[in-house]
Amino acid sequence: MPIPTGPLVEAFAASYSPAEVFSAEDLERVFGDIDAMPPELRQRIAERMRAQLAGAWRSPRVQEQEGTRRTSDELSAEVVRGYELAVGLAQSGAPSWERLTLIGDLHYDQAEFAFGQQADAAGYQALRERAFEHYADAAAMYRTELSAGRTKPSARVYGQWFSAAMGASDLGYLTRQDRPDLDQVKRVMDAMGELKEPATAQHVGLFAQEITRSMQRMAPELKPNFLRQAVRIIGEHPDGRDARSRLALYDDLDKEVELTLELDGASGVGQEPFGVHVFISSSRAVGRESGGFGKYLMNEQWSPSGSTINYRDDLEKQIREKWAGTAGASGGAGEGGFEVMSVAFHKPTLQRLGDRREGWERTPLCFVLLRTKDASVERVPGLKLDMDFSDGQGMVILPVASRDVPISSVARGAETGSASGFGVRDLEVEQILDDRESKSSGLVRLEVRARGKGIVPAIDRVLTIGGGSTGGSSDGLVSGGNFGGGLEVLALEDHGLSVGELQTDTGAVVPVTERSWTLTLGASKGAGASTGGEATFDFPTARASGGDDRNYSGNASAGAGSSDEGNNLSNDRRAASGAKTNSTATVTNKRYSDADLTDAPSRVAIAMPGSGGGGWVWPLALVAVLAVGGAGAWMYRRGRHSNMDVERDTRWIVPDHVSPVNAIGMLRRVEAMNGTLLNAAEQRELATDIAELERAYFAPEADGGVAAAGGSEIGARSADARTADARFVDPRTKALKWASKAEAALSE
Question: How many CB atoms lie within 10 A of CB 298?
Fold first, then answer.
């Protein structure tokens, strides 16, 4: 009894190395002359080669495991040789619709391989067209054979043709990157329609059954698009009921879940920092059946695609790549046009919030601080999130995308001619005056710290500085800005904006932001500021709010993506609910008294160098801005090298008991020398020690952690946590360390 063809071919394949493509010589050595082989055997060998060519034979990993040491070019040449041999085997003998279908599969697979090898476009397209023509010829021959009663009803040729039109002749190799050829889908539909009734309806049913079986082994992310095109062919055929019901489910999910981008305020963002909220909005039914969407705020989560996904990291990466262009953004509208200042994530356990639509809710994902790079940016590009759901027979992954959000990057106030006013509520401003070195250097430092609900704006929109303005600038050198009796701004340093927490207790997401500045002040030119050795300093006052345009009334938006209409709606609701639309900042004035901070009146007297004239004070102050304390240090060192006895500088004497405030004050005093005592590395070390003290003893407590600049999580620090930190951060140790360094540097 002859051995069946199938087991014979499998035995031959098992004897071959998995890294080696069949050769014609080996085939003839085992099976005899190729032209004399039975057609069924040739077809079986060609089918086996097709499976191997799509898998192991083209795999560099298999080549490495088998130790072939082939280069990429050599491997590519072997695969091409294999396709040519397989096509030759399939073409031998009398034509049949099965053989024509196989040849179409081989041509299509070779075309996709060539595309992956970056072959020339003309050769790739020629192979694809050859494949589709073989499918068409196979369908025509099948129709003839069926009419003559020489073949059984089968949807195979139509199924293979459809699969190739979707992007892969074998659905197991179909990927999301593959795009359907809609013209070929239409040709499949037309070819089936050329069958005589009732054959057409019969084959549509067979096709629908094959589609249903295919769904069991299809990747979850491919199901929606595959079904959508298949239903075009199936139509209302009874056997397509399952396909239609599943597609309807996918369409319903697509309508009931949205990724929403929403501006934290009006669309006229100018070129100052502004915020964007990212939400998942869904019907309550979808949210309940899905078990919530907290996993999209976490990393290392299982995906139905069979892999582990870092949802949180991937979302931040997408934000930075698409909005800041950190990895070669494609250059679409607004892409790469922003500076991403920080991404603050919500906690995965956060309760879902209400939505303006009846029966809907929203899950906050993150809050992003942005700033446009120039005035040409007109929109915030949309984002995309792959979300998985159960379809009753498995899982499906739906790409949920948000719409772009239109903005205006024209400088704020350009339309109205005014830069005053800010959209922040419950603003708290602390001003700390440091004039401990004013008598020797002629310089005064003012630390300004602001915290409020909303985006804290530039300093000239927070404080009114008499006699001048920073001109809307938040950094660099500025002129003007009178502070009373002869003092003006010489330099302004903006330490940046950060998100302290994200409050949701009101049913809306309210970002609480913090911002700080350091102003260096000196005597005004020709103002005679040092008359009598004293100047007058007036603390700046809060600038009246121009109205809160922030979107805190449920953070409502117009569907997926936010719009001016949605923001206007939220403004109307905020006004109707009685939310604050005008507020004045709470300002606290402090002043250093040695190393302690004390309350200060709105006007204070400042000791300045000299006793009148003032003409030499301005040059001295300007020199001090460029090299603070340099002249004083030089004079001190000169005195140390003279024959005179010099008493120890009391500034660097550390008492037995040092409070955290005293320690920070002493370290700030060293820092104020601006590098005249310490080198760059020591300056960085000093800044770290100051930050450690402030965190250990004065970091604010909060309920929920949020991510700071760069995406790390900050926020909740209980009293116990601060106590634990304090055990390792001793104020006196820090004070002794830097006092000794300062004293040693000055003694050189």
Answer: 14
